[in-house]
Amino acid sequence: MLRVHERERYWKIAGEAFLLAKGRDLEITIREQSGFLTRFANNEIHQNGFREFLKISLRMIEGGKSVRVETTDPSRASLSSCVDRLKALLQSCRGSDGEPALLSKQSYRAVNDFDPKIVSENPDYSAKAIAAAIREIKKTGAQASGYDSAVCRHVYIANSNGLEAWHRSSAFRFGLTARKGRGVGYASGFSAFQKGLNKQEIFKSALERAGQAALPVRVKPGRYAVIFSPRAMAEFSAPVFEDMNARKVADKNSFFWGKKGKRLFSSRLTIEDNVYYPGQTGLSFDGVGLPREKILLVDRGVVRNFVNDRKAALDFRQTPTGHGAGALQPSTMPVNIVARTGEEKWTDLLARFDHVIFIPHIWYHQVTNANTWLATGFIKGSALVWRNGAWQGGVQHVRYSQSLAETLRNIIDISCDREMIKDKEHGGSLWPFTVVEGFRIV
Amino acid sequence: MSRQKILFVLDLLHFKKANYGDARFVHIKRRIVSAKNGHASVLEEKESIGMGVRVLKNGGWGFGCSSDLSARGLESAVSRGLETASASAKVRAFPVELSHEAAIQTSWRTPVRIDPWQVDSAEQIAYLLECEKRMRSAKGVILTDSRMEFMKKFQIFGSTQGSLIESLKCLAGGGLSCKAINGHELQKRSYPHPSHDYRSGGYEVISDLKLKEESFRVRDEALLLLKSRPCPEGKRDLILRDSILALQIHESLGHATELDRVYGHEDNFGGRTFLKPAMVGREKIGSSHVTLVANRPEDKSGAGFAAYDDEGVPARETRVVKDGLFTGYLSSRETAARSGLPRASGSMIAEDGSHYPLIRMTNLSLLPGTRPVEAILSEVREGIFLDTESSWSIDEERGDFQIGAEIAWRVKNGKITGAYKNPLYRGNSMRFWKQCAEVADSASYRITGFPDCGKGGPMQQAFVSHGCSPALFRGVECYASGS
Q1: Is B142's pLDDT higher than 90?
Q2: What is the percentage of chain A residues whose pLDDT exceeds 90?
Q3: Chain B contact for A330 (CB, 8 A cutoff)
Q4: Nearest residue, CB atoms, A85 vs list B45, B88, B402
Q5: Would you give the DSSP letter of residue B86?
Q6: CA-based angle B238:B240:B242, to the nearest 5?
Q7: Residue A223's CB: how many other CB atoms inside 10 A?
Q8: Contact at CB, B390 and A92, closer than 8 angstroms
Q9: Which of A125, A220, A264, B338 has a CA that sits 20 to 30 A from residue B452's CA?
Q10: What integer is the mean pLDDT of B283-289?
Q11: Which of A42-51, B125-134, B254-263 has the lowest mean pLDDT?
C-alpha cells in the first residue's frame, strides 16, 4: 500500500515552523513521496523497492536577502534547529540582493492528476504484470529490460504572509527495451491514472519495434528525412526550453537573446507551456507559490514569450509567469510543454515516404556550441529504416550532429497523435510525432 | 543511538527469516555557498536522515527505506523490503547469490584539518565575492559564477552476516566560471572544471583549489577565446590532462567496466558495455601505457573514496586494465558471484538512505608513466593540448564518443603557440586507448572529483574521482564545433 496524506499533515508542520520563527518572514516547502519501483533485466527482476521521502525546505527573507535550510525531520526540535540556522545564515549576509518580500495569499486553478487507486498499487501486482509481459517476450525468443513504477507525490507551500498552496498527484510509469536478434525496441508510457497505462500495449510496441529492427541495415552519413517519436522530440528539444528563461535572455546567456518575435522554427510548430491542458500534469503554482500562467512560447515558428520567476518579473517589469524554481526544480524554465498537433496519424505520415528513418529515443544529447546551438547525440536502441512501404531493419549507434534551430526549422509535418512524456518529478511534455527533413547523421 | 537502530533492524530481519539483509543509517549534511555576477546568490544548508534496508528473501532482492526512525518507521522499512523481495523472487530465472565477505566491525573517517561548519559563512561568501571581483575586472566579461560546497556523510552499515561499519566521509569542493561576449559570440572558461572539483577533506580543500589565484587566468582565457580561431580539422597528436582526461577515463572505460552492464541491469537506461566477459585477460583494449586501477590506496583524497562500500566490502585495489590488457570489472557481491569472481571490488554506493546501492566507479585512476610532461610535449611537432571538458556524448556500449573542450592550445615543435576555440575530438574507446603514446610521470598527477555521475532509475547522483597525469594520444580526429 502506498501512503497518501491529507493537506492537514503539512499545515500542522508549517504552523509549527511559523510559531518558531516568531514573526520573521518564513516560507516552507514540503515534498513528500511514496512509491515503488521494480526494475527488470534479461527477463527477471533485479531490483525492487519502496522509496519514501519527506523533504522540508525553509526559506527566511530579511532585508532583500534570502537563505534556505532543508531537513527530512518534521519534529519540533528539528524545525527549531532549522529556524536557528536560518537566522545564523542571514547574519552572514550583508547588503541586499533585492529578493522580493513574501507573496500574500493567492488563488489557484485545480490540476487533476491524482488517482485514489494509487493506494492499491503494490509490488506483487507489479511483479505479476512484469511476469506476464516476460512470458510473452520469452515465447518470441526476445529479452527485455525495463521498469514499472507507481508514485504518489505531495507538494505543499505556505508562508508567514498567509499564502498556502497544495497539490497531490499520482504517477504510473512503465517502460522497456526489448532485444530480439540484432534489433532493439524501446517503448514507454506514463499516466496519472491507473487505467491510463496499458502495460501490455507498451511491451508489445517495444517487441514489435525490436522485430522491425532485427535485420541490420546500413545508413551512410548524410542528410535524411526522419520521424521523431514524441519521446525523442521531447528529449531533443529540452535544451531549447532551458534557454527560454527571461533572465538568461536578458543576460545574453541564451540563444534567444535578440531573437524574440523572429521566425526561428517551422511554421508548423506552435508550443505553449500550459499545466492546465488536458493530459498535462503538475503544479498550478511555482516554487514560491505564484500561480502558473499559460504561456505561448512559439507561435507558428515565431518565438513569442519567455518564462520568468518573480524576481526577474520585477527586475524587468514583466508580467509574472509563475516559473520560479524555489525548492521544487533546478531552474526557471517551461515545464509543461504542449506542442500543437497536425492533421494525420503518424502511420499515415510514414506511409507517404519512400525512405525515412524513425527515431524512437535519443541518448547523450548535448549542445556542443552555445552560439550556433549545434547539438550531437545518439539514437538510442535501433533507429528503424522505412523504405518502399515497409520496415527494412534497424541500425544501432547512430550519431547525429545538427543545430537545434535548424532541426526545428526543418519540421515538415506533425501528427495528430500525441504522447505525454514525463521523466521528471513535476511537469512533462505533450509531443506529437514530428517529421524533419535534412536531419544530419554523421 | 543510531547503532541501536541498526541492530533493531538486523534483529527484525533475523526474526523474519530473511536470507540476507543489510541496513544503512545515513545522515548527510551539506552547505552550499555560491555567488553570481558579483553578488552572493545561494546560501543553503541541507540535512537528511534515513535508513535504507536491503533484503534478500527466496532468492529475490527487496528494498525499503524510511526517514521516520521510530520503531514503527523502521518496522515499515523492513516489511516493505520483505514484501518487495518476495515479489522479486517470483520473477527470477535463478536465485541471487552473494560472493563471500568476512564480517567486519570497524570504523573510518576522512581526515579533516578545518571543519567547514566552524568557518563563518560570511568568510566563505567574502572569498567567493573576491573571486567574482577578479573575474569581472575586465570589459567583455558578462557572466560569472563561483561556488563552494561541503558535505558530511555519517553512516552506519550493518548486515545480518555480522558486519557493523561506522564511517564519516567529508567532502569539499568548488569552482569558478566566466563568460565573455563579443557581439553575439559567447565563450566560457571554468576552473577547475564545469562541475566544480570535489575532494575528500574539509575547508582546507578550498585553499588547495586556489580559486582566488586562478580567477584572473579564467577571465583572461575567456577573453582570449573570443579572439581565437576555431580548432582546425584533421588528425593530430592530442594531449589531455586533468578533468578532461578524467572524463575520458570515466565515460569510455569507467562505465564500460561496471559489471552490472554485462547483465543488462542498465540496458533500459545507461546501456550495456563493449567489454565482454570473454575479453577478460585476453583482449588488449589500450596501449602498453594504459593501466587503470580502482580504489588505489594512494588516491584516498579522491571524492569517490570510501574505505568500505555500501555492501560492507572493503575498497579493494582492482586493476581493470593492465598494460593495455583488459583484466576485470568493478563488481558487486551479486555480480561477482554470478561471474565466478572470488571477491567483489567494493564499488557499491547509494546516493543516500532512500536509494539502493549500485556499482560505481568510486576512485578509478590511470597510473602515471615515467617521464615529465614537459619531455613528452617537447617531442610533439604539431598537436593540440586540450583543457576542460565542455560537452561529451558516447554510445550505449561506451564505444564511439565525441568530447568537446573549452580551450585548445596549439602545440608546435614542442611549444604552446596559441589558442583555438570550440575544439572537439572523436574516436572509439578501444582504438583511442591504443593510440595512447605516453602518460606523464607522477609529478603532474592530479585527482579530479565529479559530483554528478548519474546512474540507475530513479537516477542517483554519485561522487566519483579519477587520478591521472597528462597523456599523449597520436593521430586523433580533431575539429571545431560547427565546422
Answers
A1: yes
A2: 90
A3: no
A4: B45
A5: H
A6: 175
A7: 12
A8: no
A9: B338
A10: 98
A11: A42-51
Name the phi and psi angles at B10, rounded to 5: -65, -40
Q: To 10 degrees, what angle do helices B121-135 and B211-227 make? A: 30
Residue A394 bridge partners (DSSP): A216, A384
Q: How far is CA A218 from CA A185, A214, A222, A393, A394, in A?
A: 17, 13, 12, 9, 8
* pLDDT tens-digit series, residues B392-439: 999 999 999 999 999 999 999 999 999 999 999 999 999 999 999 999
**Cα B61 from Cα B332, distance rounded (Å):** 14
pLDDT at B483: 66
- Residue where the block lists cell 538568461: A248
Count the Cβ atoms, other than its own, within 10 Å of residue B93.
9
Q: Which of B1-5, B445-449, B472-476 has the lowest mean pLDDT?
A: B1-5
User: In the structure, what pLDDT confidence band is assigned to residue A270 with cuts at 50, 70 and 90?
Assistant: very high
- Number of residues written out for chain A: 442
Cell of B464: 566519483
Q: Which residue has the cell 598527477?
A: B445
Confidence check: pLDDT of A1 > 80: no
> Phi, psi at residue B426, to the nearest 5°?
-140, 165
Q: Which residues in chain B are closer than 8 Å to A36, comparing Cβ atoms? A: 80, 84
User: Which is nearest to A50 in space by CA: B67, B452, B462, B14?
Assistant: B67
Mean pLDDT of A242-265: 97
Tell me which amino acid residue B449 is: G
Q: Touching check for B47 and chain A: CB below 8 Å?
A: yes
Give the Cα separation of A293 and A192 in Å (integer).
Answer: 21
What are the two backbone dihedrals, phi and then psi, of residue B255, each rounded to the nearest 5 degrees? -60, -35
Nearest CA-CA partner of A323 in A273, A276, A278, A279? A273
**What are the tens digits of pLDDT across the range B412-421?**
999 999 999 9
Whether residue A48 and residue B41 make contact (CB cut-off 8 A), yes or no, is no
Residue indicated by cell numbers 520496415: A391
Nearest-CA neighbor of A49 among B445, B214, B62, B421? B62
CB-based contact A41 B41, cutoff 8 Å: no
Q: Hunting for cell 526544480 — which residue is that?
A: A329
Give the separation between CA A120 and CA A125, rounded to whole angstroms: 9
Distances (CA, A) of B442 to B241, B291, B367, B446: 13, 14, 8, 9
- Report pTM: 0.96
- Helix B71-89, helix B2-15: angle, nearest 10: 40
Residues 387-416 of B with CB under 8 A from A: 390-397, 399-400, 402, 404
Is residue B11 pLDDT above 70, yes or no? yes
**Omega of the bond prior to B458 within 30 degrees of 0, cis?**
yes
Spatial distance between the Cα atoms of B59 and B20, rounded to a whole number of angstroms = 10
Q: Of B51, B59, B60, B58, whose CA–CA distance to B22 is shortest?
A: B51
Q: Find, among B38, B171, B121, the residue nearest to A68 by Cα.
A: B121
CB B197 within 8 A of CB B223: no
* pLDDT mean over B260-286: 96
Q: What is the phi/psi pair of residue A406, to 5°?
A: -65, -40
Would you call B39 an interface residue with chain A, using a CB distance cutoff of 8 Å?
Answer: yes
Residue of B nearest to A78 (CA): B47
Q: Is the dihedral of CA B114, B116, B121, B127 positive or negative?
A: positive
Q: Which of A48, A122, A397 has the CB atom closest to B62's CB atom?
A: A48
Contact between A145 and B179 using a beta-carbon 8 Å cutoff: no
